[in-house]
Amino acid sequence: MQHHRDIPGTPVFDGEFAQRGYALNRMCFSFNDAANRAAFLRDEDAYCDKYGLTPQQRAAVKNRNVLDMIAAGGNVYYLAKLAGIFGLNVQDIGAQQTGMSVEAFKEKLQEAGK
Amino acid sequence: MARIIGGIGTTHVPAIGGAIAKHLENTPYWKPFFDGFNAVHRWLNRERPDVVVVFYNDHGLNFFLDKLPTFAVGAAQEYRHADEGWGLPVSAPYPGDPELSWHIINTLVAAEFDVTMCQEMTVDHAFTIPLSLLWPGAARPVRTIPIAINTVQHPLPSPARCFRLGQVVGAALESYLTNEKIVVLGTGGLSHQLDGTRAGFINKEFDLMCLDKLVNEPEALTCYSPLDIVEQAGSQGVELLNWIAMRGALTGRVSKLHSNYHIPISNTASAVLLLQNEAGAATYRKAG
């Protein structure tokens, strides 16, 4: 049975990613709590230390780079909780990942309905 | 005997919760979506179901990746919504029906679905938004039973397995010795992708095919693997599994009463599908 498939541009969050991203996703899971979101904003480095992020994960978070966070094992549902802290929604992160402006990304979605 | 009177599939995009909170239902962006629920409201007002069984997926509220069940059934007196971290208003608790939950659990495990049993369970937007769409306003005159399917961390259960899960839940409901009227929901989808350089992917042709097959040929969808669905419907489009489970639970003669398909809502091809189930005309009666 085939467990992997390369689908262009499409992360498949499987056991390999789940292991690699565990610390990052665990930190993002903590952002369900408003006090934890505030603690992250107060001292981002200390908060990343507390959750034991890898250097790759820390750099991706510092750079607010979603594709890098995904490469470091981040799952988009958890990353969305981090994005929410910065007031970014899924159109904003979609635009960032596809290298488009947010307006152009929204336009692309509209076009899909035509 | 309890009766399954119908099944409803609906999108559960978080942004819908924001639109309801800000009363945007009649603005140009949202109206084509919200108007798609008028026919469903009329049907629910006429039929007045007592219980709603909800197939949905948790997005990191109740379950984290430390312990992630493939199938989990709620067996609580009530289910609370909570802060999900992205600014959605928190809904009031939803009443449960533990006795019926345990009947479903007993039936599932007897049929070799070894589910996770949850006496405490928070429910996220994939549960709360569909209920807000079906019963706008605070009063929701139904008891609820959440059944969570893992659509987050691969390997995911196959469409065939989810369909079978639904069939056994349907058999459980129809063998329940009360006069309850029950509606089954499947939430999420349709095609969408939030992550990767293919973010924003939507597949209208595939979605319309699924909406069609769900009515009278659901087995056609059980031929796909989860990765086939990722490829065709986007990495989050696999929430289609919840719809397939819903359809499995409709064990009688099924007919389509209403559907609406609208692109886009947020990053998603949105849809609602209302199916009537005439019990007693069993197509999938056998549990084994």
Q: Tags for this entry?
A:
heterodimer, A: 114 residues, mainly alpha, Protocatechuate 4,5-dioxygenase, Chain A, 9 helices, globular, B: 288 residues, alpha/beta, Protocatechuate 4,5-dioxygenase, Chain B, 8-stranded mixed β-sheet, two-stranded antiparallel sheet, 32% helix, disordered C terminus
Strand order of the largest sheet of chain B: 6-3-7-2-8-1-10-9
CATH topology of the domain at 15-87 in chain A: Protocatechuate 4,5-dioxygenase, Chain A
CATH superfamily of the domain at 15-87 in chain A: Dioxygenase LigAB, LigA subunit
Taken in chain order, the helices and strands of chain B follow as: EHHHEEEEHEHEHEHHHEE
Average pLDDT of chain A: 96
What is the radius of gyration of chain B computed over CA atoms, rounded to a whole number of angstroms? 17 Å
* Total domain count of chain B: 1
How far the N terminus sits from the C terminus of chain A, by CA atoms, comes to 38 Å
- Series of secondary-structure elements of chain A, N-terminal to C-terminal: HHHHHHHHH
Assign the CATH architecture of chain B.
3-Layer(aba) Sandwich
In CATH, what is the class of the domain at 15-87 in chain A? Answer: Mainly Alpha
Enumerate the spans of chain A where pLDDT stays under 50 for 5 or more consecutive residues.
none
**How much strand of chain A?**
under 5%
Q: Show unreliable segments of chain B.
A: 281-288
List the helices and strands and how they pair.
The complex is a heterodimer of chains A (114) and B (288).
Chain A lengths: L14 H6 L1 H9 L3 H9 L1 H7 L4 H8 L3 H6 L4 H10 L4 H9 L3 H11 L2
Helix pairs in contact in A: 2-7, 3-4, 8-9
Chain B lengths: L2 E8 L3 H8 L9 H4 L3 H10 L3 E6 L14 E4 L3 E2 L14 E2 L2 H13 L5 E3 L6 H10 L8 E7 L9 H16 L6 E7 L16 H13 L9 H8 L6 H9 L4 E13 L2 E11 L10
Parallel strand pairs in B: 1-8, 2-7, 2-8, 3-6
Antiparallel strand pairs in B: 1-10, 3-7, 4-5, 9-10
Helix pairs in contact in B: 1-5, 4-6, 6-9
